[in-house]
Q: What sequence folds into this?
């Protein structure tokens, strides 16, 4: 079992930056592929970014490419989402997800993940 706890959300203005963190309970964090998803009111959950267990492979949604960066620190069992140049369309609840795959790959579909955090709210005002 893996427990994930997100933090770092908040209310910011357009153009500001935020860094989300997701702390994982499992000591085998280094073998977990991690992802970030978000869900805005009335919309489906959508992929934001993903990273392989080694950190060597990453993937981003087109809407955040060039603005968001996913990274991981195995020493802290934590994955981060650095979000720059935020805009109101980024407003959503952001969820961290984890899966233990058989290869060093990333995953962009929500149903490929086995573990989820409780979510953290990000609100961007115009």
A:
């Amino acid at each position: 079992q893996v427990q994930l706890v997100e933090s770092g959300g908040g209310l910011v203005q357009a153009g500001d930056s935020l860094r989300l963190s997701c702390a994982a309970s499992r000591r085998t964090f280094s073998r977990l592929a991690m992802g970030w998803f978000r869900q805005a009111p009335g919309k489906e959950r959508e992929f934001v970014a993903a990273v392989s267990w080694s950190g060597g492979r990453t993937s981003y949604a087109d809407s955040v490419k060039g603005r968001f960066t996913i990274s991981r620190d195995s020493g802290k069992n934590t994955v981060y989402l650095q979000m720059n140049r935020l805009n109101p369309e980024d407003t959503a609840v952001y969820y961290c997800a984890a899966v233990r795959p058989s290869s060093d790959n990333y995953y962009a579909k929500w149903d490929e993940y086995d573990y989820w955090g409780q979510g953290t709210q990000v609100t961007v005002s115009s």
Remarks:
- The chain has no helices and eleven strands.
- The mean pLDDT is 95.
- The radius of gyration is 13 Å.
